[in-house]
What we know:
It is a single chain. The protein is α+β, with helices and mostly antiparallel strands. It has a domain at 33-164 and 219-296. 37% of the residues lie in helices and 18% in strands. The chain has helices at residues 17-26, 30-49, 56-62, 126-132, 148-156, 227-235, 238-250, 261-289, 298-313, 320-325, 351-358; strands spanning 67-75, 97-103, 109-115, 137-140, 160-164, 171-179, 183-190, 201-208, 211-217. The radius of gyration is 23 Å and the shape is globular.
Amino acid sequence: MLAREKFLWAPQVGVSQPALAKRFLLFPYEIFRRVLLDLVPILRERALKRERPLPKPVEHARQHFDHIWAVDGSTLEALFRKLKALRDIPVGQLAGKICSVIDLVTYMPVETWFRENASGHDSNFLPQILAMAKAKVLFIFDRGFYDFTFFDDLIERGAHFITRLKSNAVFSIERTLLKTDRVREHIIKLGGPTSQCQHLLRLIEVRHGTKWYRYVTSVLDPNILPAVYIADLYRRRWRIEEAFAVLKRLLGLSYLWTGSINGVLLQVWSTWLFYAILIDLADAVAEELMLPFDRISLEMVFRGLYHFIQAYNRGETTDPVKYLAAPENRDLGVVKRLRNKRPDPISPETPQILEAVKL
């Protein structure tokens, strides 16, 4: 691309693959990280001003929390060994592990940390997460961050969390808030005699068929977060899994350009930067159509940019949002099709759940 055409503000320039690979060893990845961290707050403020509809549980939680953040880790692919400087790296060694924070209101990346040890546990990132903990922050974790001391530290910093209860969890019930054949709520003491969470927690159990889904949260007051909203918010934790899928499959992070750690981090931060801009564009399209963000396909917005560029070069359009939202361009598939499916067992709209919660 550099040799064949103009790219952004750069003219055509001849460059060899080895020269490009060597640049990845030296060019400071921190530049891309700083650009991302400077840009994201601007994009977040833009997103918060948009009027597209939000899911009911998210809208309700925003009345009590300034931030709703999902946290998870992901392993990067194997390192390449093409450069002489990397020949001593073992074959098949993974490039490392990232842990990321995603805003569930704006879908924007908030923070990402990197460790070279790809086999390390998610709990290795607990100090970084604690550094972000403050009042009116709600974290949503999977069970990889299950740690009693960590839970206590979060609460003492004024933050709150939602996570799934482990299948072998030991706890004692202090009092029962609600007990029906579909929803149960208890205030519990989590842990046993030798290891115990020092703060009381709230256990929520929601039944679908013969299976009970169990969640634990530091939000003790059901008026702040009703049981069904706890379950729904935890389900939305999968937004970060979707973000990793977009980064790797759609934006190419599953194919590493180089085996150097500096090069890997260059790619990590530049890919997150592109992801943030893609989210902002998709959110603007959602507002233009007055649809929830979840109805917009990130993949088709990304692929639709090619068609926008062709129309732009023909002098037919100058606004990518208007172009992607135009009725005549519905064939681009930017809006996801509605499918007839069974009601979600933990959705706030499920009548049986609503009835149980009211009781």
